């Protein structure tokens, strides 16, 4: 379900809950008003009953017939009010209680009627009237008190329910919003982590994320973008390799020319002096041909290995051997530019879990840049040593070229940024940066105009994924 629909559904549920509570509160309020109206009527009736009882007391004290008539008038008036207020009394106390109240009122009126026909001094008559009046007053008071308690109970119950409902709605809203916000924040953190990884050249994907909402669509789109960028990165790396091949080919061609000339001269000598040469010299000449042929084969193999597109294949490797292999490709290019090369490789370095072909690509890029920065000759230093942290290894390529200006230095790893004008693609260092980041390493640069540039590559012994799998 989409997040928008989840929010709408949660609002509908909370809204329905609020409407239900409002309906309940409305019903209780109507009931309270009904009972309050009855209490008002009951208070008036109790006042009338009290006045009747006082008149009754005066009648028995003074035996005045006029007082008896006044009592009968008040009883008739009370009956009229009960009849008129039935619509308010029955919903409050029910029809049965109203009938009982009317019956007690009739009993009292009947007792008074008997008094009018008999003698007021008769004790039995007085007792009967007083008993009927007392029952009427007590029942009226009891109903009134009971309804007052009911009103208070309804108000208290409504108060408690409203308080409970308020907290229930508040907690429900907080829980729903927390659940949705946590899901959004968790997904955004994964997306942020992936985008940071992509910006560092590590084209991973968010695995195990299954959701049909908007975040799921965003994650799918970013995963697709990451996979496409990984594919494009391979194409860029291969394109840069082909670009580097153009630079290396001249040197390799010259490197191959030397053994070919040697083979040619040996063949001519062998042909001209075959009969004069003893068998030992013939074998020695053929051994030289074989050695020169093997030299050509190694040069061509290194060139082919470098040029072929390959999938990333990290494995345990000796980084010094990778440096030596790279030097066979670039050595003649370095020699043609009259550059003095100093190689210092530390012994006993830990083996690294790397893709040899990709690290070789980085070294070729760095050496090529160094050579191009020293067009008038200079010195090139290549070294390896144990890193300062953990089992890492540091590779250094330093030149005494023209250097890089401070305002340009922060941008040299940006894609398509070049200091060579139309002669550069701006991809070499960007590709190198991505390769090193994929190896969980670091690449740093220090440069001073007119002095030279130093690139330092730090590679961990194992990439994080391999360490976790191991």
Tell me what the structure shows.
- The chain is an alpha+beta fold and 470 residues long.
- The protein is built from eleven helices and seven strands.
- Strand 4 and strand 5 form a beta hairpin.
- Helix 8 packs parallel to helix 9.
- The radius of gyration is 53 Å and the shape is rod-shaped.
Give the gist of this structure:
By secondary structure, the chain is of the alpha+beta class. It contains 11 helices and 7 strands. The strands form 2 sheets. Strands 2-4-5-7-6 form a 5-stranded mixed beta sheet, with helices on one face. A two-stranded antiparallel sheet has the order 1-3.
The radius of gyration over CA amounts to 53 Å
Give the CATH H-level superfamily of the largest domain: Histidine kinase-like ATPase, C-terminal domain
Strand line-up of the largest beta sheet: 2-4-5-7-6
Question: Any idea of the CATH topology of the largest domain?
Answer: Heat Shock Protein 90
**What share of residues is helical?**
over 70%
Largest sheet, in brief, is: 5 strands, mixed
Which structural class is indicated by helix and strand composition? alpha+beta
Which percent band covers the strand fraction? Answer: 5-15%
- Shape descriptor: rod-shaped
Output the helix-strand order.
HHHHHHHEHEEHEEHEEH
* Separate helix tally: 11
State the distance separating the first and last CA atoms.
39 Å
Count of β-strands: 7
Mean pLDDT: 76
Q: Count structural domains.
A: 2
Give unreliable regions as ranges. Answer: 464-470
CATH class of the largest domain: Alpha Beta
The CATH architecture assignment of the largest domain turns out to be 2-Layer Sandwich
